[in-house]
Amino acid sequence: MSTVKPKHIGRNISRIRELRDMKQEALAIAIGTNQQSISIIEGSESVDEEKLKKIAQALGVPVEVIRNFSEEAVFNIMGNTYDNGSSSVNHGCTFNPLDKLIESYEENKKLYQQLIQAEKEKVALLEKLLDKK
């Protein structure tokens, strides 16, 4: 029987902050607190919703990116962009993997909104058909 380990929100915040090349002090100033508070937050498994929203805004990512952050996904993106061929040129990652995660989130959000709109239109059409009977 396997148990699913809950996401460690504080660790996710720390890793995203590091990927953004931001120090704890800078994040603290951005959300109106001190460095010690950021250190405590990054050591916490959970963070209250309001604080999480402020942190997400300061880091420039949606809250869902913090909740669902996966280092494995970042390394997969980086690994898939590295050419391990015999050329002498290092074709390393030329973009921030975190930006790719955010971009993917935004694309999925748009698709989801389009699906919701299509379902609303179907419901409206069915209601119209029912009214005619």
UniProtKB/TrEMBL annotation:
Keywords: Coiled coil. The keyword Nucleotide-binding does not apply. PROSITE patterns: HTH_CROC1. Residues 13-66 form the HTH cro/C1-type domain. Pfam families: HTH_3 (PF01381). Residues 101-129 form a coiled coil. CDD domains: HTH_XRE (cd00093). The keyword Plastid does not apply. This is Helix-turn-helix transcriptional regulator. The lineage of its organism: Bacteria, Pseudomonadati, Bacteroidota, Flavobacteriia, Flavobacteriales.
